[in-house]
Design goal:
It is a peripheral membrane protein. Keywords: Cytoplasm, Endosome, Lysosome, Membrane, Protein transport, Transport. Belongs to the adaptor complexes medium subunit family. The structure is a single chain. Helices cover 15% and strands 35% of the residues. It is an alpha+beta fold. It has three domains: 185 residues, Beta-Lactamase (2-Layer Sandwich), CATH 3.30.450; 138 residues, Mu homology domain, subdomain B (Immunoglobulin-like, Sandwich); 115 residues, Immunoglobulin-like, CATH 2.60.40. It has a nine-stranded mixed β-sheet. It is extended.
């Protein structure tokens, strides 16, 4: 969604109605002209627009209460999107014009509609209308604050900030955020940059203490069947997120990813557009190719000129020999009860220090749980009979043996049926693991704090972190019939 033009209009009683601030976005207007073709209606000049808007809102010339273009019974207004009839060159109906008013101000904008002008699409289908109103409401809150009538000096000061505010929240006419109440922070205010020109995509400059934060997160997913006739599946997906608070128009930062000597090369690498240069061999390794051991194995250097906001520097996949936790899950049905047997083993290469580690065992399409006689060798077991769910909190460490077990039986004799799921019937059941391991990755990939290079006048504080987390980590009951396509569906 983009905005073709925006206006802030003052309507204090006893004073002339005036446009206090306006902004047109020529690049968006060019797109509007290309989309509309011969039906294009240009945004009129300020005086014409003001007169047309006041007429449509019934605020002009009180001696003429009836205006045919507005009050004729054939005209059907579609609030909150007004229609202004423009005369002269490029004449026609300018639609939609969004307006909101509160206290002394009227705020208006013309959003870009990425649809043919005729027939007009329903307002409910236009995301640009809701986003345009959100932008206007945010600007209104910024200008007026919590009350509806700020002092005149405060309003004048905030109106003076609007150029820098729009540069921050709506660069090139595309809203990214809504302005915060109060004055914008100093990094959002452009300052003199000497001979170096500030790029249009950068919404401001950082002023203050320099800091660079780099976070590496690897996510592991798996489908384990415990069945020799069906191959277990797993994959690892990594992301590197950066937030760089560095002075300068185009500061240079280099982040280097390193692998252990026996680590598998990273694959399917995607980088942010701000990366200035990259070795082509880094981008050629793909997980769909046959791995021949000759792929580029690092170190992976990413030089870039960062934006102000946090961003994803790169993402990758990695081939690892085994998942971090191997599981065995068996259910045996005896009359109206189930015998449960679970064994989980933490692989020796994984750091035995979790932020959390929980195993969820749901039982669908059965009566509500009655008697639950289940013992665990480590951790705590929480029983939710209403949800037919066992939650096994394994805590922050596996025992020294790195193995934990669960044994027991569950009787389903509750008065009401438990939750249902069309996928899991009879013995088709699974365990889902949730865990996070700080300060490690499964591939061994890391960002050395000393390898982060920042070319800036001020020495920044550099913070790096890494962690491993689970997502869609399933262990299916080996005595049931796990869905054949589940691996492709969930992975």
């Amino acid at each position: 969604m983009s905005v073709r033009a925006l206006w802030i209009i003052s309507q204090e009683k006893g004073e002339n109605v005036t446009i206090r601030f306006s902004r047109r976005f020529s690049t968006v207007e060019h797109r509007a002209k290309s989309l509309a073709g011969s039906s294009y209606v240009a945004v009129p000049d300020e005086s014409t627009f003001l007169q047309l808007l006041l007429t449509e809102l019934g605020l002009s010339d009180p001696s003429k209460p009836y205006v045919a273009a507005r009050d004729d019974c054939l005209y059907r207004p579609r609030s909150p999107a007004l229609e202004l009839c423009v005369d002269g060159p490029g004449k026609g109906a300018l639609w939609p014009v969004l307006t909101i008013s509160q206290g002394p101000l009227i705020l208006a904008c013309v959003p870009l509609v990425n649809a043919p002008p005729e027939p007009r699409p329903p307002l409910s289908s236009l995301l640009s209308v809701s986003q345009g109103l959100t932008l206007l409401a945010g600007i209104q809150t910024f200008l007026l604050g919590p009350g509806s009538k700020p002092d005149n000096e405060g309003l004048v000061a905030r109106l003076g900030m609007m150029p820098s505010v729009l540069l921050q929240v709506c660069p090139l006419g595309t809203p990214l955020d809504v302005p915060l109440t109060g004055a914008p922070s100093s990094p959002a205010v452009p300052t003199s940059t000497g001979t170096q020109k500030q790029p249009a995509w950068k919404t401001g400059l950082h002023r203050g203490r320099a800091a660079v934060n780099v976070a590496l997160v690897e996510t592991v997913r798996t489908m384990q069947y415990g069945n020799q006739s069906r191959q277990d599946l797993w994959d690892v997906f990594g992301t590197v997120t950066c937030k760089c608070e560095v002075e300068g128009v185009l500061p240079n930062v280099t982040v280097t990813l390193s692998l252990p000597p026996n680590g598998s090369p990273l694959q399917d690498i995607l980088v942010h557009p701000c990366v200035t240069s990259l070795d082509s061999s880094i981008l050629t390794a793909s997980s769909v190719d046959n791995y021949d051991g000759s792929s580029f194995s690092g170190p992976y250097k990413f030089p870039f000129s960062p934006p102000l906001e946090p961003f994803r520097l790169c993402s990758y996949t990695s081939q690892v020999p085994v998942p971090p936790i191997l599981g065995s899950y068996q259910l045996k049905e005896e009359e109206n009860q189930l015998r449960v047997s679970v064994a989980l083993k933490l692989h020796e290469s994984v750091k035995n220090s979790f932020e959390y580690c929980d195993a969820h065992l749901p039982f669908f399409n059965r009566a509500q749980m009655g008697v639950v006689d289940v013992k665990v060798s480590s951790g705590q077991l929480d029983v939710s009979k209403e949800k037919n769910l066992l939650v096994w909190a394994l805590g922050q460490k596996f025992p020294k043996s790195r193995e934990v077990t669960m044994e027991g039986k569950i009787v389903f004799s509750g008065p009401t049926p438990g939750p249902s799921d069309p996928l899991c019937t009879q013995l088709t059941a699974y365990i889902k693991l949730y865990f996070k391991v700080p300060d490690m990755t499964l591939s061994g990939c890391c960002v050395d704090q000393h390898s982060v290079q920042v070319y800036s006048s001020a020495k920044p504080r550099i913070v790096t972190s890494r962690e491993l987390q689970s997502k869609e980590y399933f262990i299916w009951n080996s005595t049931g019939t796990a869905p054949v396509s589940s691996g492709q569906m969930m992975l």
